[in-house]
Design brief:
Blueprint lengths: L20 E2 L10 H17 L6 H19 L6 E4 L2 H12 L6 E5 L4 H14 L2 E5 L10 H5 L6 E7 L11 H10 L3 E5 L11 H4 L3 E4 L12 E5 L1 H6 L37 H17 L1 H21 L3 E2 L11 E5 L5 H10 L2 E2 L1 E3 L2 E5 L6 H14 L1
Parallel strand pairs: 1-11, 3-4, 3-5, 5-6, 6-7
Antiparallel strand pairs: 2-8, 7-8, 9-10, 10-13, 12-13
The chain binds pyridoxal-5'-phosphate (PLP).
Pyridoxal-5'-phosphate binds next to helix 3 and helix 4.
């Protein structure tokens, strides 16, 4: 390995790194071997043995474990966290619960990940709520808190934005967003899918109303188990639009005549979870907490900074802000004369795995990457360009 920054996590936990330079956590993160093993163990046990050694009581306890892990990650009490399948599921549930109507507006941005805006756009067809997508697509590099603030007024019922933008890498300040939402009495729905696992998040201290994250990106976990934090005052009011046997205080009471909702954020969970994905989430959170999320942020920022400098040397237009407080693990760049998909495909041929997004190329740097990955990606790019 070359001199420079070593990986934060043991690279041997990520065997695919022997084959490729993996800079694609923003799309699908790599699960370290201990996380894969935890999922295989529980998944295999349920697949092969059903309820043998997995009775109703054990099933309930097994369901509690990933919730407790997610709560630890977010500095929250376990009652304030639900384990959902993915961010999108929680965003939809929350949208249909809040159900803002005609005369109100929901503020987001036109460059957001579609799952952040779609629930509201769909809801608007039923309720007539105005969905204000603050304009940033024409000049993505200019995106900031001001972009969002410019669309907010006293009729704003909800602000729904990502912590870190999937297609530009901008990181917004959650405290400033909370202040903005509070100033007009709006609910802040905060999508941390591109930041949870990289940026330390103390949800109660920040005061966010709703925080969602899928598990399979920067959390290094598996598809099928994501996180939704609800501030206590929020879940107490939440009358979930989707309910099922698991939404209740005591699922194994099997009372089909009333809906005694769980007295916690768990009321958002309505059906049998993907237990193996939950085991992966638990192990992944422990893995990341052992590394230390502050250390993860410092590492990802440093590597992304190294990459950024190299990209600029190669003549790229970098859309991601340079300041450490305004970015996380993502760097997005445009290359004059190149379409993102073509360049990403050429990089893949050279063994460098990235994603094309909005005409640009997205590079994601995480705990298993080191400076040699950055150098190899830059060398491959130089060759292609
Ligand atoms: C901000 C954001 N939210 C949500 C998602 C994915 O949603 P889901 O995991 O529900 O498919 C992504 C994926 O790129 C994302 O960037």
């Amino acid at each position: 390995m070359s001199a420079g920054r070593p990986a934060l996590a043991p690279r041997s936990d990520f065997p695919v790194l022997e084959e490729v330079v993996y800079l694609n956590t923003g799309s699908i993160g790599l699960e370290p071997l201990p996380v894969q093993r935890a999922a295989e163990e529980l998944g295999g046990q349920i697949a092969g043995r059903g309820t043998v050694g997995f009775d109703d009581e054990i099933e309930k306890r097994v369901g509690d474990i990933p919730r407790a892990a997610a709560a630890r990650l977010l500095g929250a009490g376990p009652d304030d966290v639900a384990v959902v399948t993915h961010a999108t599921e929680a965003l939809c549930q929350v949208a249909w619960w809040l159900k803002p109507g005609a005369g109100e507006n929901v503020v987001s941005a036109d460059l957001e990940f579609p799952s952040v805006t779609y629930p509201w756009l769909r809801l608007a067809r039923d309720t007539g709520v105005e969905v204000r997508l603050a304009p940033a697509l024409d000049d993505p590099a200019s995106f900031s808190l001001d972009t969002i603030a410019g669309a907010v007024d006293e009729r704003t019922a909800v602000i729904c934005v990502s912590h870190v933008q999937y297609a530009t890498g901008h990181r917004l300040d959650p405290a400033a967003l909370v202040e903005l939402a509070r100033s007009v009495d709006a609910t802040l729905v905060f999508d941390a899918t591109q930041s949870a696992g990289v940026v330390p998040l103390d949800a109660p201290a920040l005061g966010v109303d709703v925080l969602v994250s899928s598990g399979y990106k920067w959390l290094c976990s598996a598809p099928g188990a994501g996180i939704c934090y609800l501030r206590p005052e929020i879940w107490e009011r939440l009358d979930p639009p989707f309910v099922g046997w698991k939404s209740t205080e005591d699922a194994i009471a099997f009372d089909a005549t009333t809906i005694p909702l769980a007295r916690s954020a768990r009321r958002l969970e309505y059906s049998t979870p993907a237990y193996a994905a939950g085991a992966a989430l638990t192990a992944a959170v422990e893995y990341l907490l052992d590394l230390g999320i502050e250390n993860v942020l410092a590492h990802d920022l440093a590597l992304a900074g190294e990459l950024r400098q190299g990209l600029e040397r190669l003549g790229a237009e970098v859309l991601t802000p340079a300041h450490d407080d305004r970015r996380a693990g993502i760097v997005i760049a445009r290359f004059p004369g190149w379409e993102g998909p073509d360049l990403a495909a050429r990089l893949a041929e050279a063994g460098v795995i990235v994603s094309p997004r909005l005409g640009s190329v997205r590079f994601s740097l995480h705990v298993f990457n080191d400076s040699s990955d950055v150098e190899r990606a830059l060398a491959a790019l130089e060759e292609i360009l």
